[in-house]
Amino acid sequence: MKTTSQNTHLKTSKKLVGNVISIEESKAVVQLTITEEMIVDTFGLSHGGFTFGLADYAAMVLINEPNVVLGKAEVKFVKPTIVGDILTATAIFKEKISNVKSVVSVSVFNKKDTLVFEGEFVCFSLEKHVLD
């Protein structure tokens, strides 16, 4: 297992999107703790956008190019996430179409090792920044 240093999304909020656990050639793992500010009701249900953001971030970190962006996502929210959950997203390559386009599968599990989210992300590695 060769760990790689992070080359993308370097200013991402660990608190809101996740903390990189590992980056390997074929797998990236990112973790996020669901906090009070992420919940939407008195039951402690968290907003799905945080789970999606975690999964998207894991896909970007797997690609690990400075100018990687998301082009398309097909996702499934399998189980709800709640305050206190520690979510772990694992991203793996499904298909590397070219040097520019990749398809990444991401699975997110909670601290009970229950699948809560899965998705397929189409990512593009651009020559220059999308805003440049």
What percent of residues adopt helix (DSSP H or I)? Answer: 10-25%
Strand order, largest beta sheet: 1-2-4-5-6-3
Spatial gap, N to C terminus = 35 Å
Q: What's the rounded overall pLDDT mean? A: 96
Order of helices and strands: EEHEEEE
Question: What characteristic shape results from the CA principal axes?
Answer: globular
Which structural class matches the secondary elements? mainly beta
Structurally, the number of domains stands at: 1
Helical region count? 1
Describe the main β-sheet briefly: 6 strands, antiparallel
If you compute it from the alpha carbons, what radius of gyration comes out, rounded to the nearest whole angstrom?
A: 14 Å
For the record, the CATH architecture stands as Roll
Strand content: 35-45%
Low-confidence stretches: none
Q: In terms of quaternary structure, what is this? A: single chain
The CATH class turns out to be Alpha Beta
- CATH superfamily, by name, is Hotdog Thioesterase
Overall strand count: 6
CATH topology: Thiol Ester Dehydrase, Chain A
Structure write-up:
The chain is mainly beta and 132 residues long. It has a single domain (19-125), classed as Roll (Thiol Ester Dehydrase, Chain A). It has one helix at 48-63, and strands at residues 19-23, 27-33, 68-77, 86-96, 101-109, 115-125. Strands 1-2-4-5-6-3 form a six-stranded antiparallel β-sheet, covered by helices on one side. A hairpin with a 3-residue loop joins β1 and β2 (27-33). The mean pLDDT is 96.
